[in-house]
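User: Hey, quick favor. My workstation is busy. Could you predict this chain's structure for me?
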Amino acid sequence: MSVLAVEKALQVFLAKTGSSAMVLKGEWGVGKTFVWNRLIKNKREIIARKKYSYISLFGLSSLNDVKRSIFEGTIPACSAGEKIDLKEILTNVSDLQDYLNRGFRKVIKATTDAASIPYTKGLGGIADSLSFASVSDTLICIDDYERKGASLSDRDVLGLISLLVEQKNCSVILLSNTNENGEKTSFSQYAEKVFEYEVVLEPTLPETLSLVFDEGLESDRCCIQYASLLKISNIRLLHRIKKASDRLFAEAGPIDSFFLNQISQTLILGIWSIFSNDSKRVSLDFIKGYGRDYVYVSTISKDKRNPQHDSFAQVLMEYGYKYTDELDLSILLFVEKGFLDLVFYRAAIQNAVEKEAYSQSTLSLNQAWEKFHNSLHCDDIEVLTSFELAVEECLDKMSLSQLDSFCELMSDLGRYDVVDTTIEKFFRIWTSRNEPVDKSILFKFPKNKNLNNSYSDYVKANRVVKSIEQLVLPHAEQRSINEEDYLALAEIDGSEFKRLFKTQTGSYLWRCLEHCLAYGNISASSRESQDAFEKIFLKSYTVIQEIMQESKLNEVRLSKFRVYEEKYNNLVSKV
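Assistant: No problem, here it is.
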């Protein structure tokens, strides 16, 4: 039955004046509890009973536990759907005392002190019996039937429901999983004698999504879109998604619809990956590395492919997930750890906004490439015209790699004149900006020979002058070397090495010393690099010797570096 049909059936049950029992069935996570709680909160005025009690059988292992829970959870019907508080508990105790005054005056003296305790669990067996005896004219919802304690049998629960209906003038609804009760023969045996009828909740996916998300909110519409793609119908997962998305959007501030979609898409994918039981779900590690550690499968030869990764990639492609960037990673970590790193998240959003702005500014160039890649028609003039117009519009915003791709295409088409003219205009723009360029930050050098030569000339003319700290510390930390940096380091005066070593402290000091001396153990393929390595080593060890002579303490501190002395003497003898 649809949600609407189930709610109509439940309203009839709520308004019924005679005592009765029914079952609300549905698969696990379909939203039975949510639908019930929402209905009684919105339709309190039609409840025929004076009182209402909701209990969960989760972990309850005896009938006394169940009876006590019914009593403690009882509230006026006009408050149905609200959380029970101390005031309601005290009201229940007061009602129990009235019950005792009416029928058990001789017991009052023995139980008055105990009955004044708000939680009846500590009252003992007599008070438990008396408290349950006061239960009547109550609408009772019994939830989590399949999670009851092992020692609490089907017969016990159904017998209690029968007693409540037949002797206590109560209306009882049991929430039960269809996929569970079909296997319980004892339940089936007794259920038909206890319940008047059953209602099965079988909502469509759109109905389930509408229980959680508000289509009037753009953020919720995004969640509906992506939850639908993954066919997420479990109400608990959907509530988790709703809660997390509200947090992410609140912390993001005003953002474009493009990022609303990205945040929703990644959040739902992450929650589905971690918390869903779907056999097709993609591992979180794969998602984190998608587009970085794990590349698109068509780029990998068949003999090297991982079948599981092929399957994961296919799911992500069908879902429309292209790759994982910093913003995606910040969201996935939030889902995984349950903690939102606001600094990382907001920085990732800012970075993504800047990238999208750049993408929009070079949109015409992307469109020109689409014309080139997405058609085999002989439309040379149209494609070339698109590129010419795009480059004219975007040249001041193009990256070196974008220009490289354009130059390679024009060279393949024999348009060397266009290549030379475009490169000249490009570096004229860069020169006007007076922006220093560090060649080491490039992901890769230009493939086009003319562009590579022009860029090298530009770098030489606008070389970044780095301090010795900039040339040493990053590489000492990462245990790396960079050609441009070590060539520059080799030309720095020995006094700067001494200043560097004497101003560093802690782990930085020893990393600096070890990094600079390590050049003495490296063999280079070119003479220029080998000379640079030897210069750095000689200057470093010469300075260390000078510092060792300054005091006995420094001599002891630096004595471990004497292992380089033979290497040093051999190089000095060659100079």
